[in-house]
Design a protein that fits this description.
This protein has 336 residues and is an alpha+beta fold. Helix content is 40%, strand content 17%. The strands form two sheets. Strands 1, 4, 5, 6, 7, 8, 9 and 10 form an eight-stranded mixed β-sheet that branches. The chain has a two-stranded antiparallel ribbon with strand order 2-3. A hairpin with a 4-residue loop joins strand 6 and strand 7.
Length: 336
């Protein structure tokens, strides 16, 4: 039996030395030292050994069992140490990397402020389609197909006969058709025109249309509203001036100019070196437009205005080029 014990010992030692993980070591332990293990079986057979040799065989078995247990333990520690050294360690005391925080786009920031100002004045916010019909964009606003005013709004036409909205004023008659006066409505949104792109013009731009219909509304109410809103946005020191103008959907019409905040009135490419930026055309709603909205102009009057919202944002942040507002470059946007 001595030879059998020695062979079993050598066999077990070879397996333990080549084991690669603790799971394999445990399987070896069970195979030799478990209840039905190979060494355990030899221990059970010791009664078959002649009495005069039983002590010597018993000592050899005990020594083999002890050696196996020691070798299993040493190999297990070796494997654990090897796995530990392979882990990536890092210094917990090193300060972490602060994640970049997003923030509102300048357009979004100022738009919320504009909405708050008009809500204070009793306006409700509405939204309209960017793909619009010719009727609501032009004809309902007293601009028939042969009217020369269309030439001032170079239009993108779609294959289905629709157009990309050139002005948020397209929402005026849509609202009038569904709303009984009196009402005050604000319509922010994007518009599209085939414009010559430069520092103060783009093919895509934002407007905030506003209009109010009520009884006994006067032109002075319009001027007061414009002054109140722009001074809320640019401060009491903001300098405004008005000039007469003509739009088919208002009578009379007025154009509002804000002293350029980029050049402080000295003249720059953004204000076309005039020192003033056209920012808010407006006027009393033309009676023909009210009729299109099924509102009796003899009973109700109204005024309307269209804030050049993209320009508002530029002037608010002293951005000297309108195109910057639509660039996706995060290095630019992160400055605001």
């Amino acid at each position: 039996m001595n030879e059998e014990i020695i062979n079993l010992k050598n066999e077990a030692f070879a397996q333990i030395n080549t084991a690669s993980d603790t799971k394999e070591l445990e399987e070896i332990r069970i195979a030799y030292l478990g209840r039905n293990g190979k060494l355990t079986s030899l221990i059970k057979r010791i009664k078959e050994v002649p009495p005069e040799k039983r002590s010597q065989v018993g000592s050899l078995i005990n020594e083999t069992k002890k050696n196996l247990e020691n070798l299993l333990s040493d190999k297990k520690q070796e494997i654990i140490k090897s796995l530990t050294e392979k882990r990536e360690w890092f210094d917990l005391s090193i300060p972490g990397i602060k994640p970049e925080m997003g923030h509102k786009h300048p357009l979004k920031e100022v738009l919320e402020e504009v909405k708050d100002v008009f809500r204070y004045l009793g306006y409700q916010v509405a939204e309209g389609p960017e793909i619009e019909s010719d009727y609501y964009n032009f004809e309902a606003l007293n601009i028939p197909k042969d009217h020369p005013a269309r030439d001032t709004q170079m239009t993108f036409y779609l294959e289905n006969g629709k157009i990309l909205r050139t002005q948020t004023s397209a929402m005026q008659v849509r609202v009038m058709e569904k709303t009984k006066p009196p009402f005050r409505v604000l319509v922010p949104g994007r518009n599209f025109r085939f414009e010559q792109v430069d520092a103060s013009h783009g093919f895509e731009f934002w407007q905030v249309e506003g209009f109010a219909v009520d009884k006994n509304i006067r032109f002075t109410d319009l001027l007061g509203t414009i002054s109140f809103v722009l001074k809320k946005l640019f401060g009491e020191e903001a300098k405004l001036r008005f000039a007469t103008t003509n739009f088919p959907f208002v009578e009379p019409g007025v154009d509002t100019y804000l002293q350029c905040t980029i050049c402080k009135g000295k003249g720059c490419p953004f204000c076309k070196n005039t020192g003033w930026s056209e920012i808010m055309p407006a006027g009393m709603i033309h009676p023909e437009v009210l009729k299109k909205g099924k509102i009796n102009p003899q009973e109700w009057q109204g005024f309307a205005f269209a804030i050049g919202f993209s320009r508002i944002v530029n002037l608010r942040y002293q951005i000297d080029d309108l195109r910057i507002l639509t660039t996706p470059d995060i290095r630019i946007l992160s400055q605001f």
